[in-house]
Design a protein that fits this description.
The complex is a heterodimer of chains A (554) and B (289).
Chain A (H helix, E strand, L loop, with lengths): L1 H11 L7 H15 L9 E6 L14 H10 L4 E3 L6 E3 L2 E7 L4 E6 L13 H12 L9 H4 L4 E7 L2 E6 L6 H4 L23 E7 L3 E6 L18 E6 L3 H9 L5 E2 L4 H10 L4 E15 L9 H7 L2 H10 L2 H8 L4 E3 L23 H10 L3 E3 L2 E3 L7 E7 L3 H15 L4 E7 L1 H11 L4 E7 L9 H4 L18 H14 L4 H18 L2 E13 L3 E2 L18 E2 L2
Parallel strand pairs in A: 1-10, 16-17, 16-18
Antiparallel strand pairs in A: 2-3, 4-5, 5-7, 6-7, 8-9, 9-10, 11-19, 12-18, 12-19, 13-19, 14-15, 20-21
Helix pairs in contact in A: 10-12, 11-13, 16-17
Chain B lengths: L1 H30 L16 H7 L9 H13 L5 E2 L4 E2 H37 L2 H16 L2 H11 L5 H23 L2 H8 L4 H39 L4 H10 L3 H33 L1
Antiparallel strand pairs in B: 1-2
Helix pairs in contact in B: 1-11, 4-7, 4-9, 5-7, 6-7, 6-9, 7-9, 8-9, 9-10, 9-11, 10-11
Classes of the chains: A alpha+beta (554), B mainly alpha (289).
Amino acid sequence: MKASGHRVIGSSGEVNVSRFPIVIVLVAVGLLCSCSKKTQPTSELHVTIKTDPKTLNPLMAEEDASDRIRYLTGGVLIRVNRKEQENQGELAESWNVDEGGRRITFNLRPGVKFSDGSDFSADDVVATVKAALDPSLHSPKGDPLRAGGKADVRALDRNSVVIKFEHPIAGIERLFDEIAISPAHMAGKADSSVVLGPFSVAEQRAGEYVLLKRNPYYWKKDSAGHQLPYLDAIRMYVLSNRDTELIRFRQGDIHLIDALPPDLYEQLHSEDPGAARDLGPSVESEQFWFNEVAKAPLPPYKKAWFRSRNFRRAISTAINRADLARVAFRGHATPSVGLVSPANKFWFDRNLKSIPYDTGAALDLLKQDGFTKTGATLKDRNGNPVTFSLITNAGNKPRERMGSLIQQDLQQIGITVNFVPLDFPSIAERIMKTYDYDACMLGLTNVDLDPNGQVNVWMSSADLHQWNPAQKTPETLWEEQIDKYLRAQASTLDRKQRKADFDKVQEIAADEDPMLYLVDKNALVAVSPKVKNADPVVLTPQTYWNAEYLSLEK
Amino acid sequence: MRTLRIIGRHLLIILITALVGGLLGATLVRLAPGFGIQESDLNAQLSTEARRALHQDDAGERNVISYYGHYLGSLIHGDLGYSRSMERPVSELFRDRLPETVESVAIGVAGGWLLGLALAIPASWKRAPVYSAGATLISGVVLCIPSAVLALIFLVVGSPGKLAIALVVFPKVFRFSRNLLVKTYTMPHVLTARARGLSSARIFGWHVLPNIAAPMLALAGVTVSIAFAAAIPVEVVCDSPGLGQLAWKAALSRDVPLLVNLTLVIAIVTVAANSFSELLSPAATRDVI
């Protein structure tokens, strides 16, 4: 009755109700179209940062986003060349380290201007270095320099600066790669808008992007004498979702991606092999360690296991690192041999041997400590079945896959591993405050190639000496030895001697296995074919370390 | 006078709910594992002194009651506090991100209602079983998909993720309004109007709409709350710089000042939307009667 009534009304032409939804759909389509993206000029490179930068003050840059902006905007005295891994002069044409590493003298490049056209001079260097050293500023960039004690920073003339420290700092030159020089009147409170680097910060929209524009007064020129940089601007989109990042790369909206996760790399490689590049081992490794803290709330028998060299080495030997690299990282990782990755060209100890996967050898080591395998269960000399929990941060797919593989590997020698992914603050609380955990798997990034960058982890007194932090005096002989060699390498300017001392550290660490290095992740990047002169490297920023030379095809 | 009393009562409920919600939010974050931990704590490049310096502001947040009292005192003067994880005043973060979320919620609510009504009105008129079953199936399927997955689908096809909020709102609008319309169209006065040969537009405008206005207004308030809640996962998945994404980041970094303010905002929006519906519903109903 009603249906027929409706048909009559519809056919009479009074109101055609069936068109009403179409109108609504058209409105919806209009809404959708209104959300379309704006077009950008072609000489604007698009990259991503994972979070909003916490600061634009280059001296206060600590986390990745701020540090990438500092790298692209900051003019530095000495640059660690990301490809060659050697120091090269930038604002300093030359430098000299003397007085046993306590004094460094810089001869500055003449005729350099800031991005606002004002002249650069020694006064700017003095003011910036003094700000970095100011204890009240708590500058993360000045922190390593403050290890030299009191410092006297003076301009000798308009183009030379001398800095004299109370104590020597080994490898001091590389620390100036982190100190972006600001105009004297902005030192300590600079915002990267007036800079000496190739780009300056032009605009920031929270949660969306940071726009860097070309520095028209940048001092560097290419081999043909053309003014650098070639690009007009770099837009750094804030994107924390890696899937979104790849989708936008495919759409041509993002030009370069650093540190692609293996799964996304594989996806991209299958669609566009030319865009996806595997650069080999990076300086980022994955490792796990046992809790050896004396006051940890663990049963005494577990503490005894974890403090045993044989136990740690047995676990290390029972883990199939090649499988971790092949399965967890889809083949885009390399089994680790020690605390330094082979990507660190100079400091990697080539005498270290790879750790063989050998369950028989693992059981032999465990037997030496009184462990016995009864059926499918390994028990200690008091009959306690060997079982421990392994925590890691949730949401990291390769790490979660590694956890499952380690579970399976250790099951082969009768050990039960309870694998527990947790959110990051929960993990950090356990490993740094409560010590309520058995073993932890994380990845540490050694962004500083120099051994001094490892001191906060490997010195027994360090807070980040994860397996047993902040020891008043070294609790083991081998930790005492490591402390000794770390101090020795830090107290000489002789690079060969430093290398020999640090090799000793690497060898002791490999022998005692307090930190089980599992794999060195490969550096996986995406480079759009539109980007010219791209020459990705394993060090950060992998794809745009040479940003001043990059350009876009029109 | 009675109306003023009712409005006053609702405002009091909003205020109390927001204050209790804020305190609960602060307490939960304080008790959450990992409170007081920062990512920089594991930065091997920083010295112990530098890491300690970064924790100087944590101390004031350890006692929740004292922190909350201090926070409310500052709030009266317009100071929302400082976000440790974002290194910015909370008021600045809100100012930057509120428009994005308002836009997302507005698009979500408008889109959800458009789509819901577009399917519900013909379903109630036509009574065609296939159409009705099809529309019900679509809304049922959409209802079963988590908002984050909907956002991911939009992301993959390259459409704005905020439209996913519309799909979250749509099934609620469709089901509620279709049932309401079907019921209203069978009411005696509507049947009489049809029998008298009135046009369907006139029947809808004069006889159906006044009857459904009150419950629809109540639903409007609820859909604002639904859209606001859906904005959190959608903004996270789509990397939209709104309050939802901010809430997610604040929770992960145990950022007490940020989370307390966000809890207050969410509580106020939710309770205010529902109160608004409640306040308007009796008036609309009276008019119809």
